[in-house]
Task: inverse folding
C-alpha cells in the first residue's frame, strides 16, 4: 500500500485552556439518568420488601390472635359442655333416687294393702267359720 499523505498530531495552539474539556457532553444512546434511576429502583425495591415483611408480620399476628381466640372459645365451650354434663348427670341421679323412693313407697303401700286385704279375708273367713259352727250346733227350741 502506498502512502500518499502522512500527518502528524499537532497540538491545538491553546491546548492548555482546552485540557479536560470534551467536545461532546452527551453521546447518542448515552443514559445520563442511569445511576439515579438505578438508585431509585433499588430504594423502591427496598420499600416493597419492607412493606411485604410488615404485611407478613401483621398477617402472622392476626392469625396468631385468631388462633388464640379460637382456642379460648373452644376452652369456654368445653367448660360449659362439662358443666351441662355434670348438671345432666346430677339431675339423672336425682331422678333415679326420686324414682327409687317412689317405687319403695308404692311397694310399701301395695304390701300394706295386700296385708290389710289378707287380714280382712282372714277375719271374714273366721267369721264365716264361726257362723257355720253356730249353725251346725243343735239349738234348743224355744217355742
Result:
Amino acid at each position: 500500500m502506498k502512502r500518499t499523505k502522512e500527518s502528524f498530531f499537532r497540538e491545538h495552539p491553546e491546548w492548555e485552556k482546552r485540557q479536560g474539556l470534551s467536545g461532546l457532553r452527551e453521546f447518542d444512546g448515552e443514559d445520563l439518568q442511569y445511576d439515579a434511576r438505578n438508585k431509585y429502583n433499588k430504594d423502591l425495591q427496598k420499600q416493597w420488601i419492607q412493606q411485604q415483611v410488615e404485611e407478613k408480620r401483621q398477617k402472622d399476628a392476626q392469625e396468631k390472635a385468631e388462633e388464640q381466640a379460637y382456642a379460648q372459645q373452644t376452652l369456654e365451650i368445653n367448660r360449659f359442655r362439662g358443666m351441662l354434663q355434670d348438671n345432666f348427670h346430677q339431675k339423672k341421679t336425682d331422678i333415679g333416687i326420686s324414682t327409687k323412693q317412689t317405687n319403695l313407697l308404692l311397694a310399701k303401700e301395695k304390701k300394706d294393702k295386700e296385708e290389710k286385704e289378707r287380714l280382712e279375708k282372714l277375719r271374714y273367713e273366721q267369721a264365716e267359720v264361726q257362723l257355720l259352727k253356730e249353725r251346725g250346733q243343735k239349738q234348743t227350741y224355744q217355742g
About this structure: The radius of gyration is 61 Å. The helical segments are 15-18, 34-136. Residues 34-136 form the longest helix (103 residues). DSSP finds two helices and no strands in the chain.
